Amino acid sequence: MPRIAPKVIIFSLFEPASDLPGEQKLFTDRIGFSETYEIPGAMGDLFMNSDGVGALLLGIGATKPAISLMALGYDERFDLTETYFLIAGIAGVNPHAGSLGSVAWAHFAVDGNLAFEIDAREMPEDWPTGIFPLGANEPYEMPYRGEDGVFLKDEIIELNGKLMNWAYTLTRNEPLQDSEEMRANRALYTDHAAALEAPSVLQGDVLACERFWHGKYYTDWAQRWVKLWTEDQGMFVMSSMEDMAALRGLKALEMQGKVDFSRVMVLRSASNYCMQPPGKTAIENMTSEESEEDRYPGYLPSLENLFRVGSRVVEELVDGWERWEKEVPCF
Question: CA nearest 330: which of 136, 161, 123?
Fold first, then answer.
Protein backbone atom coordinates (compact mmCIF):
# COMPACT_ATOMS: atom_id res chain seq x y z
CA MET A 1 0.00 0.00 0.00
CA PRO A 2 1.52 3.40 -0.97
CA ARG A 3 2.42 5.74 1.87
CA ILE A 4 0.54 9.00 2.35
CA ALA A 5 2.70 11.99 1.36
CA PRO A 6 1.20 15.27 2.66
CA LYS A 7 2.13 18.45 0.81
CA VAL A 8 1.71 20.70 3.87
CA ILE A 9 0.94 20.02 7.53
CA ILE A 10 -0.30 22.85 9.75
CA PHE A 11 0.76 22.42 13.36
CA SER A 12 -1.39 24.06 16.05
CA LEU A 13 -0.57 24.01 19.74
CA PHE A 14 -3.85 24.19 21.65
CA GLU A 15 -7.60 23.90 21.21
CA PRO A 16 -9.80 24.62 24.27
CA ALA A 17 -12.46 22.16 25.37
CA SER A 18 -14.87 25.12 25.71
CA ASP A 19 -16.76 26.89 22.93
CA LEU A 20 -13.92 29.41 22.63
CA PRO A 21 -11.95 28.57 19.47
CA GLY A 22 -8.23 27.75 19.60
CA GLU A 23 -5.47 27.84 17.04
CA GLN A 24 -6.66 24.88 14.97
CA LYS A 25 -10.37 25.54 14.60
CA LEU A 26 -10.35 28.11 11.77
CA PHE A 27 -8.03 25.90 9.72
CA THR A 28 -10.17 22.79 10.19
CA ASP A 29 -13.46 24.66 9.65
CA ARG A 30 -12.42 26.58 6.54
CA ILE A 31 -9.96 24.33 4.76
CA GLY A 32 -12.06 21.23 5.19
CA PHE A 33 -10.67 17.78 5.96
CA SER A 34 -12.14 14.50 4.80
CA GLU A 35 -9.83 11.98 6.47
CA THR A 36 -8.83 11.52 10.10
CA TYR A 37 -5.85 9.45 11.23
CA GLU A 38 -5.20 8.58 14.85
CA ILE A 39 -1.50 9.06 15.61
CA PRO A 40 -0.68 6.91 18.66
CA GLY A 41 1.27 8.98 21.17
CA ALA A 42 0.40 12.35 19.62
CA MET A 43 -1.76 14.96 21.34
CA GLY A 44 -4.25 15.03 18.48
CA ASP A 45 -5.40 13.30 15.31
CA LEU A 46 -3.98 14.12 11.89
CA PHE A 47 -6.66 15.60 9.62
CA MET A 48 -6.09 15.38 5.86
CA ASN A 49 -7.89 16.54 2.73
CA SER A 50 -7.73 15.50 -0.90
CA ASP A 51 -5.36 18.38 -1.75
CA GLY A 52 -2.66 16.90 0.50
CA VAL A 53 -3.08 19.42 3.33
CA GLY A 54 -2.93 18.14 6.88
CA ALA A 55 -3.50 19.59 10.36
CA LEU A 56 -2.19 18.22 13.65
CA LEU A 57 -2.53 19.46 17.23
CA LEU A 58 0.86 19.18 18.97
CA GLY A 59 0.02 20.23 22.54
CA ILE A 60 1.37 23.05 24.68
CA GLY A 61 4.61 23.42 26.59
CA ALA A 62 8.20 22.34 26.08
CA THR A 63 7.71 18.57 25.70
CA LYS A 64 4.35 17.64 24.17
CA PRO A 65 5.10 19.03 20.68
CA ALA A 66 8.31 16.99 20.43
CA ILE A 67 6.47 13.84 21.52
CA SER A 68 3.70 14.45 18.99
CA LEU A 69 6.24 14.95 16.22
CA MET A 70 8.12 11.77 17.10
CA ALA A 71 4.84 9.88 16.96
CA LEU A 72 4.00 11.35 13.55
CA GLY A 73 7.49 10.99 12.12
CA TYR A 74 7.79 7.31 13.01
CA ASP A 75 4.30 6.42 11.77
CA GLU A 76 5.04 4.24 8.74
CA ARG A 77 1.81 5.24 7.01
CA PHE A 78 3.29 8.63 6.11
CA ASP A 79 6.10 9.86 3.89
CA LEU A 80 7.11 13.31 5.16
CA THR A 81 10.33 13.75 3.21
CA GLU A 82 8.90 16.46 0.92
CA THR A 83 6.27 17.86 3.28
CA TYR A 84 6.22 21.53 4.29
CA PHE A 85 5.48 22.22 7.95
CA LEU A 86 3.79 25.36 9.24
CA ILE A 87 3.89 25.89 13.01
CA ALA A 88 1.05 28.39 13.49
CA GLY A 89 0.08 29.78 16.88
CA ILE A 90 -0.74 32.89 18.85
CA ALA A 91 1.74 34.74 21.04
CA GLY A 92 2.51 37.76 23.17
CA VAL A 93 4.03 40.56 21.10
CA ASN A 94 6.87 42.83 22.17
CA PRO A 95 5.40 46.39 22.04
CA HIS A 96 8.84 47.70 21.12
CA ALA A 97 8.59 45.74 17.86
CA GLY A 98 4.97 45.11 16.90
CA SER A 99 1.30 45.64 17.62
CA LEU A 100 -1.75 43.69 18.72
CA GLY A 101 -3.09 41.44 15.96
CA SER A 102 0.14 41.52 13.97
CA VAL A 103 1.57 38.33 12.48
CA ALA A 104 5.29 37.52 12.36
CA TRP A 105 7.38 35.06 10.35
CA ALA A 106 10.38 33.88 12.38
CA HIS A 107 13.98 33.37 11.27
CA PHE A 108 15.28 32.40 14.72
CA ALA A 109 13.75 30.59 17.67
CA VAL A 110 15.53 31.02 21.00
CA ASP A 111 15.13 28.87 24.11
CA GLY A 112 14.07 30.74 27.25
CA ASN A 113 14.11 27.67 29.51
CA LEU A 114 17.72 26.49 29.36
CA ALA A 115 19.37 28.74 31.93
CA PHE A 116 20.66 29.22 35.43
CA GLU A 117 18.28 31.21 37.61
CA ILE A 118 18.29 32.65 41.10
CA ASP A 119 15.47 34.51 42.78
CA ALA A 120 15.62 38.24 42.03
CA ARG A 121 15.57 38.92 45.78
CA GLU A 122 18.91 37.10 46.11
CA MET A 123 20.74 38.28 43.01
CA PRO A 124 23.63 40.79 43.18
CA GLU A 125 22.38 44.36 43.39
CA ASP A 126 23.95 45.37 40.08
CA TRP A 127 22.37 42.50 38.11
CA PRO A 128 19.40 43.33 35.82
CA THR A 129 17.99 39.78 36.12
CA GLY A 130 18.54 36.56 38.01
CA ILE A 131 18.48 34.54 34.76
CA PHE A 132 21.83 33.80 33.12
CA PRO A 133 23.09 31.29 30.54
CA LEU A 134 24.15 27.76 31.44
CA GLY A 135 27.92 27.86 31.73
CA ALA A 136 28.04 31.61 32.35
CA ASN A 137 28.69 33.48 35.59
CA GLU A 138 26.44 36.48 35.08
CA PRO A 139 23.54 37.70 32.92
CA TYR A 140 24.12 38.08 29.18
CA GLU A 141 27.57 36.50 29.27
CA MET A 142 28.02 34.07 26.39
CA PRO A 143 29.30 30.79 27.86
CA TYR A 144 31.97 28.63 26.30
CA ARG A 145 30.29 26.51 23.63
CA GLY A 146 33.19 24.50 22.18
CA GLU A 147 32.98 20.86 21.21
CA ASP A 148 34.23 19.79 24.64
CA GLY A 149 31.73 21.97 26.48
CA VAL A 150 29.39 20.20 28.88
CA PHE A 151 26.32 22.32 28.23
CA LEU A 152 23.69 22.05 25.54
CA LYS A 153 24.39 23.91 22.32
CA ASP A 154 20.89 24.23 20.89
CA GLU A 155 19.64 27.32 22.70
CA ILE A 156 18.98 28.78 19.26
CA ILE A 157 17.54 27.21 16.11
CA GLU A 158 17.77 28.99 12.78
CA LEU A 159 15.05 28.44 10.21
CA ASN A 160 15.39 28.69 6.44
CA GLY A 161 15.73 32.46 5.97
CA LYS A 162 15.07 32.27 2.23
CA LEU A 163 11.79 30.41 2.77
CA MET A 164 10.84 32.91 5.49
CA ASN A 165 11.50 35.82 3.11
CA TRP A 166 9.39 34.15 0.44
CA ALA A 167 6.49 33.60 2.85
CA TYR A 168 6.75 37.17 4.15
CA THR A 169 6.86 38.64 0.62
CA LEU A 170 3.83 36.57 -0.36
CA THR A 171 1.76 37.69 2.64
CA ARG A 172 3.03 41.12 3.69
CA ASN A 173 0.07 42.94 2.13
CA GLU A 174 -2.54 40.48 3.41
CA PRO A 175 -5.42 42.48 4.95
CA LEU A 176 -5.65 41.83 8.69
CA GLN A 177 -8.60 42.10 11.04
CA ASP A 178 -8.74 45.00 13.48
CA SER A 179 -11.37 46.14 15.99
CA GLU A 180 -12.37 49.09 18.18
CA GLU A 181 -11.35 47.10 21.26
CA MET A 182 -7.91 46.45 19.81
CA ARG A 183 -7.44 50.10 18.86
CA ALA A 184 -8.38 51.14 22.40
CA ASN A 185 -5.91 48.66 23.87
CA ARG A 186 -3.13 49.77 21.52
CA ALA A 187 -3.71 53.41 22.41
CA LEU A 188 -2.62 52.71 25.99
CA TYR A 189 0.96 52.00 24.87
CA THR A 190 1.93 55.63 24.48
CA ASP A 191 5.64 54.92 25.06
CA HIS A 192 5.88 52.41 22.21
CA ALA A 193 5.47 53.65 18.65
CA ALA A 194 5.34 50.16 17.16
CA ALA A 195 2.56 49.14 19.55
CA LEU A 196 0.34 51.98 18.35
CA GLU A 197 0.35 50.83 14.72
CA ALA A 198 -2.42 48.85 13.03
CA PRO A 199 -1.85 45.08 12.70
CA SER A 200 0.65 44.11 10.03
CA VAL A 201 2.68 41.17 8.77
CA LEU A 202 6.23 41.27 10.13
CA GLN A 203 9.50 39.42 10.18
CA GLY A 204 10.41 38.76 13.79
CA ASP A 205 11.90 36.12 16.02
CA VAL A 206 10.40 34.06 18.83
CA LEU A 207 11.53 33.39 22.37
CA ALA A 208 10.10 30.06 23.54
CA CYS A 209 9.65 29.75 27.29
CA GLU A 210 7.36 27.29 29.06
CA ARG A 211 6.34 29.93 31.60
CA PHE A 212 3.70 32.48 30.62
CA TRP A 213 5.78 35.45 31.74
CA HIS A 214 4.64 39.06 31.59
CA GLY A 215 5.98 42.51 32.37
CA LYS A 216 8.53 45.19 31.57
CA TYR A 217 11.51 43.52 33.20
CA TYR A 218 10.94 40.17 31.53
CA THR A 219 10.48 41.96 28.21
CA ASP A 220 13.82 43.68 28.72
CA TRP A 221 15.33 40.25 29.49
CA ALA A 222 13.71 38.69 26.40
CA GLN A 223 15.08 41.37 24.10
CA ARG A 224 18.62 40.99 25.41
CA TRP A 225 18.39 37.18 25.56
CA VAL A 226 17.44 36.95 21.88
CA LYS A 227 20.19 39.41 20.93
CA LEU A 228 22.71 37.35 22.90
CA TRP A 229 21.95 33.98 21.36
CA THR A 230 21.49 35.29 17.81
CA GLU A 231 24.69 37.35 18.12
CA ASP A 232 22.72 40.54 17.35
CA GLN A 233 21.18 39.06 14.19
CA GLY A 234 17.70 38.54 15.62
CA MET A 235 15.00 40.67 17.21
CA PHE A 236 12.58 39.50 19.88
CA VAL A 237 9.08 40.03 18.52
CA MET A 238 6.92 37.14 19.74
CA SER A 239 6.84 35.11 22.97
CA SER A 240 5.75 31.49 22.73
CA MET A 241 5.89 28.27 24.72
CA GLU A 242 6.25 25.50 22.17
CA ASP A 243 8.45 26.44 19.23
CA MET A 244 11.72 25.02 20.54
CA ALA A 245 10.07 21.68 21.34
CA ALA A 246 8.49 21.47 17.89
CA LEU A 247 11.66 22.51 16.10
CA ARG A 248 13.84 20.10 18.08
CA GLY A 249 11.43 17.32 17.17
CA LEU A 250 11.65 18.22 13.49
CA LYS A 251 15.45 18.50 13.71
CA ALA A 252 15.62 15.00 15.20
CA LEU A 253 13.42 13.64 12.42
CA GLU A 254 15.66 15.27 9.83
CA MET A 255 18.64 13.45 11.32
CA GLN A 256 16.77 10.20 10.61
CA GLY A 257 16.09 11.25 7.01
CA LYS A 258 12.36 11.54 7.68
CA VAL A 259 11.80 15.28 7.06
CA ASP A 260 13.52 18.20 5.32
CA PHE A 261 14.05 20.95 7.92
CA SER A 262 14.50 23.57 5.19
CA ARG A 263 10.72 23.23 4.64
CA VAL A 264 9.77 24.32 8.18
CA MET A 265 8.10 27.69 8.92
CA VAL A 266 7.09 29.37 12.19
CA LEU A 267 4.23 31.87 12.19
CA ARG A 268 3.01 33.65 15.32
CA SER A 269 0.07 36.06 15.70
CA ALA A 270 -0.18 38.59 18.55
CA SER A 271 -3.13 37.97 20.87
CA ASN A 272 -1.71 40.25 23.59
CA TYR A 273 1.26 42.38 24.54
CA CYS A 274 3.95 40.75 26.66
CA MET A 275 4.15 43.73 29.03
CA GLN A 276 1.89 46.34 30.60
CA PRO A 277 1.24 49.87 29.27
CA PRO A 278 2.23 53.01 31.18
CA GLY A 279 0.16 53.51 34.33
CA LYS A 280 -0.45 49.81 34.99
CA THR A 281 1.47 47.17 36.88
CA ALA A 282 2.26 43.84 35.28
CA ILE A 283 -0.15 41.97 37.55
CA GLU A 284 -2.96 44.48 36.91
CA ASN A 285 -2.51 43.99 33.19
CA MET A 286 -2.35 40.20 33.39
CA THR A 287 -5.09 39.27 35.88
CA SER A 288 -8.05 41.58 35.50
CA GLU A 289 -11.52 40.40 36.49
CA GLU A 290 -12.76 40.72 32.91
CA SER A 291 -13.58 37.76 30.71
CA GLU A 292 -10.86 36.10 28.65
CA GLU A 293 -12.05 37.85 25.49
CA ASP A 294 -12.20 41.27 27.22
CA ARG A 295 -8.82 40.80 28.91
CA TYR A 296 -7.24 39.87 25.58
CA PRO A 297 -9.10 41.90 22.92
CA GLY A 298 -6.67 40.65 20.30
CA TYR A 299 -7.41 36.98 20.94
CA LEU A 300 -10.11 36.28 18.34
CA PRO A 301 -8.67 38.69 15.73
CA SER A 302 -5.24 37.09 16.19
CA LEU A 303 -6.75 33.70 15.32
CA GLU A 304 -8.35 35.22 12.22
CA ASN A 305 -5.12 36.89 11.16
CA LEU A 306 -3.15 33.70 11.79
CA PHE A 307 -5.50 31.88 9.44
CA ARG A 308 -5.44 34.59 6.74
CA VAL A 309 -1.66 34.69 6.56
CA GLY A 310 -0.99 30.99 7.12
CA SER A 311 -3.61 29.76 4.67
CA ARG A 312 -2.23 32.06 1.94
CA VAL A 313 1.09 30.25 2.09
CA VAL A 314 -0.60 26.84 2.23
CA GLU A 315 -2.65 27.68 -0.86
CA GLU A 316 0.43 28.81 -2.81
CA LEU A 317 2.35 25.64 -1.95
CA VAL A 318 -0.53 23.42 -3.02
CA ASP A 319 -1.34 25.37 -6.19
CA GLY A 320 2.32 25.39 -7.22
CA TRP A 321 3.08 21.83 -6.15
CA GLU A 322 4.44 20.84 -9.53
CA ARG A 323 7.28 23.25 -8.77
CA TRP A 324 7.44 23.30 -4.95
CA GLU A 325 7.51 19.53 -4.52
CA LYS A 326 11.17 19.48 -5.53
CA GLU A 327 12.18 23.17 -5.20
CA VAL A 328 11.92 24.98 -1.86
CA PRO A 329 10.63 28.55 -2.42
CA CYS A 330 13.10 31.32 -1.76
CA PHE A 331 13.31 35.08 -2.10
Answer: 161
pLDDT tens for the 331 residues of the chain, in order: 789 999 999 999 999 877 889 999 999 999 989 999 999 999 999 999 999 999 999 999 999 999 999 999 999 999 999 999 999 999 999 999 999 999 999 999 999 998 999 999 999 999 999 999 988 999 999 887 766 555 556 789 999 999 999 999 999 999 999 999 999 999 999 999 999 999 999 999 999 999 999 999 999 999 999 999 999 999 999 999 999 999 999 999 999 999 999 999 999 999 999 999 999 999 998 876 565 555 688 999 999 999 999 999 999 999 999 999 999 999 7
Which residue type occupies 92? G
- For the chain, domains (ranges, CATH) are 8-109+159-219+232-324 (3.40.50.1580)
**pTM of the prediction?**
0.95
Residues with Cβ < 8 Å from 99, sequence gap 6 or more? 93, 186, 194, 195, 196, 197, 198, 199, 200, 270
SS3 105: strand
